[in-house]
Design a protein that fits this description.
Elements: E1 3-7, E2 10-12, E3 18-25, E4 34-39, E5 45-51, E6 56-58, E7 66-71, E8 76-81, E9 90-96, E10 101-102, E11 106-110
Parallel strand pairs: 2-11
Antiparallel strand pairs: 1-3, 3-8, 4-5, 4-9, 5-6, 7-8, 9-10, 9-11
Length: about 110
């Protein structure tokens, strides 16, 4: 079975940091682009960042604050989020967009 298990969400104050992790199984992790997407309350799904085995893509809204990385030996994807803002509040999903595999999501709430 394919699994994408995200973790690391929580409540953080504006300006704070969080690190999300996503452990993948059931497919050849290092063969695919993989990334983070988010859905804020009342809004649509947004691509936050994706990574191949070289380049990364970042949404303009997170450039300079978020860093995506992967450890192919551990089948794990990471998202380091710094300088968090209230607008970053959302459910964050890790996904393999090519194969349309999605994890269950982890909630990030940025609030004082």
């Amino acid at each position: 079975d394919v699994q994408l298990q995200a973790s690391g969400g929580g409540l953080v104050q504006p300006g704070g940091s969080l690190r999300l992790s996503c452990v993948a199984s059931g497919f050849a992790f290092d063969d695919f682009d993989i990334g983070w997407f988010r859905q804020a309350p009342g809004k649509g799904l947004e691509r936050v960042a994706t990574i191949s085995n070289g380049d990364g893509y970042y949404a303009d809204s997170v450039k300079g604050r978020f860093t995506i990385s992967r450890d192919n030996a551990k089948n794990t994807l990471y998202l380091q989020m710094n300088s968090l803002k209230s607008d970053d509040t959302a459910v964050y999903y890790c996904a393999n967009p090519t194969l349309n595999y999605w994890g269950q999501g982890t909630l990030v709430t940025v609030s004082s």
